[in-house]
Amino acid sequence: MEKTAPIVELSHVEVNFKKKAGLFKKADYVNALHDINLSIYPGEVVVLVGESGSGKTTMANVIAGIVQPTSGKVFFKGTQVPKMNQEQREEYRSRIQMVQQDSYASLNPMRRMIKTLGDPLVIKKYSDKKNVEEKVSHFLNTVELTPPENFLQKYPHQLSGGQRQRMLIARAISMNPELLLADEPVSMIDVSLRVSVLNLLAILNQRDNIAITYITHDLATARYVGQNGRIAVMYLGQIVETGNLQEVLSNPQHPYLRALLAAVPIPDPRVARQPRETNIKTMEEIEEGIPHGCRFHNRCPYCKEICKEKKPVMEKHGFSMAACHRIAELPPFSLYQASRKEDNHEG
Amino acid sequence: MNTIKSFFKTMYQNKQAFVGMIILIFFILTATVGTKVVPLDLGTDFENRYQMPSLSHPLGTDYVGNDLFQQIVHGTKSVLYIGLLASLFTVALGFFLGALAGFAGGVVDRIISLVAQILISVPIFPIQLIIAVVFPIKSTVMLAVVLAILSWAQLARNVRSTILSLKQREFVLVDRIMGMPQWYIIFKEILPNVTSYLASTFVLNTNAAIASSVALMMLGMAPYDVTHWSIILSNATAQAASGMNTAGIFNMLVPTLAFVLLQMSLIFFANGLDEALNPRLRSAASAKKNKRRISPNAA
Amino acid sequence: MPPKEQITSSMKSDVFGEISLKIEDLCVDFLLSGGDLRAVYHLDFELPAHKMTGLVGESGSGKTTLTSAILRSVSTPGEITQGKIFFENQDVLKLSDEKLRRFRWNEIAMVFQAAQNSLNPSMTIQEQFAETIMAHRKNISNKEMMEISRKLLKQVKLEPERILRSYPHELSGGMKQRVMIAFAQLLDPPVLLLDEPTTALDVITQDYIFTLIKQMHDQTHNTMLLSTHDIAIVARVCDYMAVMYGGRIVEMGDIFTMFESPLHPYTQMLIKAAPSLVGELKERVAIPGSAPDLMKHHEGCIFADRCPYCYDRCQSEEPKLKVVGEEHLAACHRADIGKEGR
Fold first, then answer.
1. What is the pTM of this model?
2. Which GO cellular component terms, listed alphabetically, does the Swiss-Prot or TrEMBL entry include (chain B) (predicted)?
């Protein structure tokens, strides 16, 4: 397969945020991203997995160009971002769009949907004032908000959570993006309604060749968008494991990913009630700040001396690239012991 | 536009606000149409002083025998004029400075915030008084300016903080990602969120302005307009000290009640304005109002 | 105090044995300008004692209204317009104000979502605990109060000294949730209601909290009603599951029965719609159609227009919640006929 150029490439990206300086304190820095190397290719799905504090939203903001890295390089279609001219910058702005988690906060509460979706189209000259309703209706149809006339005059608070989320997607695709950054798009919707939104994203990817970066902490949803895609697991600002999604999820290498997988609830009582490998400490039981050596060591059940001192590097293990000193010595991972109906269950 | 229709519908549903609106309209009509229709006869007529309300004098007469009703009607004009003008200046100034501080940030923000902070901490009326002494107020417009020049601070502060928080909101972030121009973000996204606050503040400020103007006038620091209610009141008060007859007290009551009525109507109207201009509050308001009971056997 | 399992509830059910709550024909209506919305529709429900029951429903199904109704704290413009809620053979809806005050938190307590503003931001955790305990136990000493607070916080694996001193905004979402759980246990109520306790929490924190909840339940054997839209959580920790739709309970049963042989088509579709780490991707199917408009009156079954098995009887006659198996109730005409859709 010939190597197509990536849409976005992050190289050794580091992002530090300044903490507010007090009257007597010197300004302190919080590290949000450390040594990030990631490329996103046209039409592919990348699932970015991480909990809060992992830096995943900062990552999305760096990709979208609204946060500049403290060091390292960000390339859009081969050109480094700070070196872009006006035209390239506009192209960058248009081709990458974001759908956020909180659909309520992402829509102006004082404006009707036709204005929120229509005005950007007119301003960016994707439509003229006369056909804007028609164009907006087209996108509403794409996201299955039918019939569109029922939604054009509505305010955000008059829509359900799922409908608002679809509005966000409609707005994003109306900009004709090559890459859609979806930051926890279904976390605030009912579980039973998630699959249809996830399927919508998968369709947009497969049919319209829109690359999708799906950011989530819920691995159960990852498969619905990223069947044939890649996965990158983040912890405290670093990528700890990457690879092909199906392969990595069936053979997780890094202890953090294993803990994440074990924590995901499964809608089947016989499987769900099996004792699972979640003996890692929660975020509150450890000290604040970034640990020395491996960033995960103070929560890791397999931590040894070397983990406290030396930073692990990304190496090939099984199907993944993972950063951990102890992978070779870890016990085999099994998500569930009994999942077939014939097996006996407790109780 | 459906927005205007739903505005009136919401006002109607909030009975208090609706009443306020009606009374306010009544006052405005009095000030405009009324002054043309009702004559003003200010010649002294000592025989008819302190009359109780009658057909020829609906609100009685004052200490010089002039018809109170006529005076109140004509006074409405100057009361409203000053109040609305002063409030307009206050809101315009406060909004402009608050928005400037919020959007520009940096040094501009710090300077404006500092000045606002000082103004808020200092009692305004004494300063207004001092200004009135140093720069004698010769016209109503100038009176309005003097009133506004010190009252913009709180409004500016609120506008500024609203804008600051809105700048961080996700829907503004999305605009940046979509590459929308700055003017769009300011005028189309942020401002509509500030409008309802501005409108209700404008109405409430009118109240404050009227109160301040009354005080200044009664102290003689502002241009003298005989029909202004505060002048009627201050003259009546001065005269009442000498005589204890009920008509004298009535002379004081009439302008007082006129003030009270006007201020109440402004407050009620302002309450409803907030609901009416904010689409989210509009639906919540209509949800609260209906208190019908349904029978246990209803399906 | 003796462990809860020895305190037998005085109420019994034919289906579930000992029960803590019995709800009969409950209706909760919201009086809106456009009409009346019946959020809870002639609901019958029995809460099995000493067990964890999951109440599953989507937004708008009425489950939050139902849990608030049990504590008689339905938010305006909602009103309980008819029905009975029996706790220890007393109708909660008929309790006097004083008895109600004593009933709340002593007998039934609720764990709210951490995301909600249920903790007073201007008081430390210690002050809030103290206020609640003292409001109900007038003669308790300071020492005893601190002991109780410390014990409960330790139970949810929080460091008592640090937490008691803190204000709510100083705590993370996961910590606040655990404080809410401790807070609900302050007066040792036999019944605990949990309303979406892990919404907005990360998956590892969520897992941790449910482990804690399960451990606590194993120790105290109290009765728990867990209200959520996430069917996977229920699969993990609950003994029973009740499914709510359109203000009605459409199916209820033992957890294994509900997942292995769900009879109501909505239950079947709910299970199929939940994203899962295991199993075939294609098996996951969204539920077609949309939630019912509860302002309108519905003839027949509330689920009829979304149901793939709907036939003429479903359009005209409303199915009643009936026993369809051991510890298994369903409101569906097809269950009568004995068909099992799979």
1. 0.80
2. plasma membrane
| A249 has a pLDDT exceeding 60 | yes
A332 found inside a domain: yes
Chain B positions touching C82 (Cβ under 8 A) are 296
More confident residue, C8 or A313: A313
Please name the residues in contact with C324: beta carbons below 8 A apart, sequence gap of 6 or more: C263, C330, C335
Residue C90's pLDDT is 87
ipTM of the complex: 0.82
pLDDT, tens digit, 9 for 90 and up, residues A157-202: 888 888 999 999 999 999 999 999 999 999 888 888 888 899 899 9
Task: State yes or no: pLDDT of B41 exceeds 80.
Answer: no
Domain count for chain C = 1
Return the closest-CA partner of residue C77 out of A314, A327, B284.
B284
Crossing angle between the packed helical segments C142-155 and C125-136, to the nearest 10 degrees: 120
CA distance B159 to chain A (A): 16
CB C242 within 8 A of CB C251: yes
Task: Tell me, yes or no, if B176 comes closer than 8 A to chain A by beta carbon.
Answer: yes
Whether C44 contacts chain A with CB within 8 A = no
Buried b (16+ CB within 10 A) or exposed e, A120-143: bbebbeebeeeebbebbbebbebb
Structural domain harbouring C310: 4-107+189-337
Q: How many domains does chain A have?
A: 2
Q: Which residues of C84-107 are buried (b: 16+ CB within 10 A; e: fewer)?
A: ebbbeeeebbebeeeeeeebbbeb
Give the pLDDT confidence of A320-341 residue by residue, as tens digits.
Answer: 899 888 888 888 777 664 333 3
- DSSP codes joined into one string, A138-195: HHHHHTT--STHHHHT--GGGS-HHHHHHHHHHHHHTT--SEEEEESTTTTS-HHHHH
CB B102 within 8 A of CB B160: yes
- Note the CATH number of domain B8-43+56-285: 1.10.3720.10
B107 touches chain C (CB under 8 A): no
Cα angle B23, B27, B32 (rounded to 5 degrees) comes to 145
By CB atoms closer than 10 A (0-12, 13-18, 19+), residue C185 is buried
